[in-house]
Amino acid sequence: MAFRGHFEHTLDAKNRLAIPAKFRAAFADGVVLAKDPEACIAIWTPERHERILEQALAGLNPMGSRYRKVARFFQANSFDAELDSAGRVTLPQTLLQHAGIDRQVVVLGVGDHLEVWARERWERAAQELDAEIAEVIEGLGDPS
What is the pLDDT of residues 47-68, one digit of tens each? Predict the structure, then answer.
C-alpha cells in the first residue's frame, strides 16, 4: 500500500494518535515508531522498517563507525507498538520531544511510511518545500 495525503489530527490526553482509517489495515502486524532525521516521527510497518534499515546499512562496513552510528540512531530510537481497537497508537514521550509535538499534528503519507509533524512545524516545512521543489525536481537524474 502506498501512503498518500495529509491529515490533521489532535493527540488525546494519553498522547494517542488515531491512524487514518484507510491506513489501519496496513498496520495489522504492528507499527514501528521511529525518530526521523528531520523533526518528525516516522511510522513504518515492521517489515518495511527492517528492509529500509538493511538497505541503509548494506554498503557500510559492519565494523565501521558509520555503520554503528546509523544502526544506533535508527534502532535505539525506534519502538514497536500495536494499534488499539480504535486504531490508535501511543506516541512515546521521547519521540514527541524530538518532533516538538504537543497536541496538534499533521499525518503525512510519504509512500512507504507515514510521518507525524507538529502542525506549525509542518506548515513552515511545507512552505519551504513548495519554494524548493522546482529546483529539486530539475536536478532529478542529474549525476552531480
Answer: 999 999 999 999 899 999 999 9
